[in-house]
Amino acid sequence: MSEKTISLDLTTEKLYKKAKEEKIETVWDRKKIMKAPCGFGEKGICCRLCSMGPCRISPVKGKGAQKGICGATADVIVARNFARMVAGGAAAHSDHGRDIVHTLYMADKDGNYKVKDEEKLRKIANELEIQTENRDIYDVAREVAEMLLNEFGKPFGTLEFIERAPESRKKIWKELNIEPRAIDREIATIMHSTHMGCTGDAESLINMSMRTALSDGWGGSMIGTDISDVLFGTPVPRETEANLGVLKDNMVNIVLHGHEPTLSEMIVLAAEDPELVELAKSVGAEGINLVGMCCTANEVTMRHGVKIAGNFLQQELAVLTGAVEAVIVDVQCIMPSLVTLSECFHTKFITTSPKARIKGATHLEFEEENALESAKNIVREAIENYKNRQREKVFIPQEKNHATVGYSVESIKNQLTRVMNSNVDNSNPIKPLADCITSGVLRGAAGIVGCNNPKVKQDYGHIEMIKKLIANDVIVVTTGCSAQAAAKAGLMSKDARKLAGEGLRRVCELVDIPPVLHMGSCVDISRILNLVSDVSKYLNVDISKLPVVGAAPEWMSEKAVSIGTYVVSTGIDTWLGVVPPVTGSEEVVDILTNRMEDMVGAKFYIEQDPIKAAEQMLQRIEEKREKLGI
Ligand code: SF4
Ligand code: WCC
Ligand code: FE2
Asked: Does the keyword Metal-binding apply (predicted)?
């Protein structure tokens, strides 16, 4: 990769140059030192599950070790490694979900955490057959929380929220025996079955992976999203800005990075506290400028319009601006390199979660029982650091773009209902969306999600793919770092309509939306599942038959493997732009990219060129339309 092309994003290029000049190490430098990745690891044929090994299977058929010492074949080793990635990803999302429900359990009308969206809580309670009439909303909240906490470890039955899926989907899951039971149970089952001397059959391992991944998408993640909405409000469309240009020269800059809104919501409140704003002024700043990074950014921008500093590969670059007083993190996607990097500047790198302590960071544990006070202490730490900013080291690139964000399923439906009210039929808010798809005004819909990865030129995979799709009248919904790439590139501005095809442009004008909708953080992919299910039920066709596709063009984390697997298991074809470590097994590749279609009606596609991938997606969409006769 040439040094000139690490990113599509100009701010990244500029700050990378600064890093080079100042001899400060970044993720791209470490990638270079790593040289070529280990061929065994890359193909998934290295096993270190027991101490008879580690064993590596020769990638050449018939030459060298073809089996592990226990006799495990490449197929088994690759499938076990894949399954463990799914388990890791599902664990991360679901444990996040669990924490949010714990917060709901302790919510109190006089406390820091309150029920903000009572209507959504009532709806969920009804769904769970919990009495709501004549009851204090906090009693209802506690009962809902208790029931959802049981979803993680209940001994019998299957997950409650899979009932939201269309009947045709549930039937497929039942027949394949991949209806997820309790969330922790699915993760534990994978860890058990992949232990030395357990499952020795690739197909069975992929089946288990599907069930575990479904317990993430339709379980942990869906719970995380729903209860975050209950506690902090269901997002509605609002305006924001994205990219490192949102940092301010004359303000206390705080970067919020990580995932769980329990922390970030309190930091948002703390940063608005008049006493702390005064304190910021007393140290010579004009005020406090709170900005977000990765999924935390998505959570707070969707609910408060907090500006987006950047996505995964920009976390180091934010520090490199020299203008950040504190990076406050909780869990997931946080590079430990931030410790040494912040030492080159005045930046305080503050960890807050016992689940993600990082040696060398300032650890200020966030106490939920004392949430606001705790958040204020953390913000105070940032403010007091303003005086240490070394002006000569500051460089803030000016690039940023405007974006409209906040498209929860509820707000999409609202927006559609508004349009419908001016029409005749206002029976179902899904109708106009379904009509646009069946009439062909929109050819289909695509969910583009996932990370950045230094193997890919930053944002290139996301942006090229999205542009190609919208130009061909495919509406795009996004989450995670993909959403941030789109926001930075201006694709979430209503202005971006001009890049859309004729049909999509008309829809955007009529409904007053951008062609690319920000649906939230990575756990919020569950919003996409709910939306697609609604369309499937309305049209009475299974999800796998809809002209809907998914992609993770620059994925890197285990969470993305879990996401991809549950999206495919839900019946949506999914394109991966980074090759997963499975190519050492013909059988596993065949299951993922071929046989899964017979099982769940969808499969994985692996295509590193985002434009080619988009062409395949468009082709697949047209095939589905033809089969539906639309
Ligand atoms: Fe080797 Fe089998 Fe042990 Fe894996 S489980 S390290 S393949 S002996
Ligand atoms: Ni979700 Fe990927 Fe971003 Fe992390 S925040 S880097 S998993 S997309
Ligand atoms: Fe995330």
From this structure: yes
CA of 38 from ligand 1 middle (Å) equals: 18
Which residue's CA is the closest to the ligand 2 atom numbered 2?
Answer: 451
What are the CB-based long-range contacts (under 8 Å, 24+) for 426-429? 428/538
Nearest CA to ligand 2 atom 6: 451
Question: What's the confidence (pLDDT) of residue 237?
Answer: 98
pTM for the predicted model, two decimal places: 0.97
> Distance between CA atoms of 246 and 251, rounded to whole angstroms?
11
Residue 100: C-alpha distances to residues 11, 189, 295 (Å): 34, 24, 15
| Environment class of 593 (CB within 10 Å of its CB; exposed 0-12, middle 13-18, buried 19+) | middle
* Band of pLDDT at residue 208, cut at 50, 70 and 90: very high
Q: What are phi and psi of 350, to 5 degrees?
A: -110, 115
ipTM score for this prediction: 0.93
pLDDT in tens, 154-167: 999 999 999 999 99
Q: Tell me 68's DSSP state.
A: -
Give the pLDDT confidence score for residue 269 in this predicted structure: 97
How many angstroms separate the CA atoms of 21 and 609, rounded?
32
> SS3 helix, strand, coil % of the chain, rounded to 5?
55, 10, 35
Q: Which of 94, 453, 481 to mutate to test the pocket of ligand 2 (most atoms within 8 A of CB)?
A: 481
Contact of 577 with 551, CB cutoff 8 Å = yes
CA-wise closest residue to 473 among 492, 501, 497: 501
Angle 188-189-190 from CA coordinates, rounded to 5°: 90
Average pLDDT over residues 553-577: 98
* Binding-site entries for [4Fe-4S] cluster: 38, 46-47, 50, 55, 70
Rounded Cα–Cα distance for residues 214 and 568 (Å)? 10
pLDDT of 437 over the 70 cut: yes
Contacts 24+ apart (CB under 8 A), 108-114: 108/138, 109/138, 112/266, 112/368, 112/371, 112/372, 113/231, 113/262, 113/368, 113/371, 114/231
DSSP-based three-state secondary structure for 407:
coil
Q: Which ligand is nearest to the CA of 78?
A: 1
Residue 436: Cβ within 10 Å count: 22
DSSP label at residue 458: B
Q: Angle at CA 304, nearest 5°, toward 302 and 310?
A: 60
Residue indicated by tokens 């714990």? 102
The tens digit of pLDDT for each residue in 589-607 reads 999 999 999 999 999 999 9
Residue-wise pLDDT tens digits, 495-515:
999 999 999 999 999 999 999
Pocket of ligand 1, candidates 58, 67, 69, 73: which has the most ligand atoms within 8 Å of its Cβ, to mutate?
Answer: 69
Please give the domain boundaries of the chain with CATH numbers for all domains: 74-232 (1.20.1270.30), 244-393 (3.40.50.2030), 404-628 (3.40.50.2030)
Three-class SS of residue 543? Answer: helix
Q: Judge if the beta carbon of residue 70 lies within 6 A of ligand 1.
A: yes
Contact 345, 271 (CB under 8 A): no
Mutate to test the pocket of ligand 1, among 75, 194, 196, 585 (most ligand atoms within 8 A of CB): 196
Whether residue 448 has its Cβ less than 6 Å from ligand 1: no
Which candidate, 149, 150, 151, 154, places its Cα nearest to that of 162? 151
The CA distance from 553 to 461, in Å, is 5
Pocket lining: 67 vs ligand 1, CB cutoff 6 Å: no
Q: How many residues does the chain have?
A: 630
